[in-house]
Amino acid sequence: MLALMLKALLFDLDGTLADTNSVHRLSWVEVLEPHGYDVTWDFYRENITGRVSADVVEDLFPDFTPEQVREMDEAKEAGFREQAGALEPFPGLLDLIERSRKKGLKISLVTNAPKKNVLAVLQVLGLDGAFEPVILADDFGPAKPDPAPYNAALDALSISADEAVAFEDSPAGISSSVAANIPTVGIASTSAPEDLEGLGVEMVVRDFADPRLEAFIEGR
């Protein structure tokens, strides 16, 4: 059987394109500390990273009405956008996207982030229009860790899982891409490398400047 050729790179957004998690944590501090939560990095990693904000609020405040959940969710996301202006892409990201585009690879975004956040972050990073398609969990049913967002990306690109590589930083995101049978590279921006290595990833890197990454992609 002939080997399938790599056709697409699928990127998560938060914690994968840039260190958005530092900004997200600060915005969670603003909305949760008045309610007695100490949003340490351990708390953030265990309860928040990679998840949809409204789901986090519902878990932390089971007695909240839907309206209260919506209000806290919107306040948290608005706080994130206000502080996102200083974000910078992770080392090697822009070069990887440019090289891959020149080789004819499709570049897609698969994210749990709300649309307003996606647009704001891509503008700050200089990546407006860089991703096609952009798969938002809001538009495709279940969010990560369900594989639905990644399956939607594969369908939109008309490719098989073996013809793609996914980049994810969180256990929830990795669970999603691995469940969709997509070879996945873990980005150790929020979690320690050893916390990602046992989740089914092909390799773990700190950022996109890791020389092993180019060799891995070339070998697909």
UniProtKB/TrEMBL annotation:
Domain of life (superkingdom): Bacteria
GO function terms (MF aspect): catalytic activity; metal ion binding
InterPro entries: Beta-PGM-like, HAD-like_sf, HAD-SF_hydro_IA, HAD_2, HAD_sf, PGP-like_dom2
Cofactor(s) this protein cannot do without: Mg(2+)
Family annotation (Pfam families): HAD_2
PANTHER family, A to Z: 6-PHOSPHOGLUCONATE PHOSPHATASE (PTHR46193), HEXITOL PHOSPHATASE B (PTHR46193:SF18)
Protein name as catalogued: Beta-phosphoglucomutase
Similarity comment: Belongs to the HAD-like hydrolase superfamily. CbbY/CbbZ/Gph/YieH family.
Species assigned in the record: uncultured Rubrobacteraceae bacterium
Transmembrane segments: none
Entry keywords, A to Z: Carbohydrate metabolism, Magnesium, Metal-binding
